[in-house]
């Protein structure tokens, strides 16, 4: 992680912006809005196509339960957090404001609706959606200047909690998302989604170094497991062909709200998740993707608290924010 005393500082004048916008390139609300709406659109199209053509096995009721609960929870916890902190409620009446407000909840809800597999049950989707949105209020770390930001990816954290507390719930298997696809389409569809998502991270979120570090680290741990443990090389690479891996790579690990801003810190973060994932796999534990991100993100959250203490003890209180770590 970057030295908290050498972190680039955000001018005091920019602190009127939402904290999340400060974690995008040029601290741009427009970039944040574009990225959010793009990913919502991509997930909506993917699900429409998936439920009608590709063979998604979850029901429409489960998808709507996850997204509807996430949106309702977004309103409730936004009002709650506003009352606790004294900030204005972020729910706006104009169409773009509404879309931007609900976009994070839609992304979390749709991701949960795609990944969780609790047979025909609806309640696990509602529970996971509430956990996801609530985590944004509960698990927050200081950025400096009185600003805080959640440090756990909501949907990833909700998946881990749901899998731990509800052992009868599983993750949708890789075949589930391409059940009706044949031939080259098994590669074309995931490739298009992955490439387009990486492009947006390059142009709008500034998280391309993190994505590339994660992908490079994943390939490296697969090769090392092949050399050291002796597993066939194709085995640790198979997860890269699944929709769970694509969602994880596009929506969870490079989430600008829960990842470093500084490029070197991004690379360290991506490599750390890949390393922890490899260790989890060698330990023969399941759901390594989601567990690795929670562990690394929690470590970063602890570091943000420590960095804030160091910053307060070694530098004057200027009101500036640090977003490098």
Write the layout of secondary structure elements.
Blueprint: E1 9-10, H1 29-54, H2 60-85, H3 95-115, E2 116-117, H4 123-138, E3 140-144, E4 147-150, H5 154-165, E5 170-171, H6 185-205, H7 208-228, H8 234-237, H9 243-252, H10 263-282, H11 288-314, E6 321-322
Antiparallel strand pairs: 1-6, 2-5, 3-4
List its traits.
globular; 63% helix; 325 residues; mainly alpha; two-stranded antiparallel ribbon; disordered N terminus
Short description:
This protein has 325 residues and is mainly alpha-helical. It has helices spanning 29-54, 60-85, 95-115, 123-138, 154-165, 185-205, 208-228, 234-237, 243-252, 263-282, 288-314, and strands at 9-10, 116-117, 140-144, 147-150, 170-171, 321-322. A hairpin with a 2-residue loop joins strand 3 (140-144) and strand 4 (147-150).
What is the name of the CATH topology? Ammonium transporter fold
User: Strands of the largest sheet, in order across it?
Assistant: 1-6
User: Rg from C-alpha positions?
Assistant: 19 Å
The helicity comes to: 55-70%
Give the count of helical stretches: 11
Count of spatially separate domains: 1
Low-confidence stretches: 1-17
CATH architecture: Orthogonal Bundle
Number of strands: 6
Distance between the termini: 6 Å
Task: Tell me the β content.
Answer: 5-15%
Order of helices and strands: EHHHEHEEHEHHHHHHE
Structural class estimated from helices and strands: mainly alpha
- Overall shape: it is globular
CATH class, named Mainly Alpha
Question: Biggest β-sheet, characterized?
Answer: 2 strands, antiparallel
Q: Roughly what is the average pLDDT, rounded to an integer?
A: 85
